Amino acid sequence: MDHLQYLLLLAACLLVTLPLELTGSRVYRRPARLAKAILPAAVVFLAWDVLAIAGGVWNYNPRYLVGVTLPFGVPLEEALFFVVVPLCGLLTFETVERMLPKAKR
To answer: Where does the protein principally reside (predicted)?
Structure first.
């Protein structure tokens, strides 16, 4: 079960923030805008990971990974992290932005 921990944590982040879409944040309903928000940073941090792995600066404990490795040695979970965490943050931000004006009335 340890090998699923990273993926389960990412899934939990998505599950906890998924209901925020129902508040009208419309993050999932605008995929082009979502990609513009997430992909640039994801590419930069993936490149950073590739360089750090290649340079021996850090590595990942295989005990907590499913074993799928993307090109250049980046674990699947790490690549997903750079999409899931910003997505959850964006959902939270958009929801707060929508709710604050209502709370001030």
So the answer is: membrane
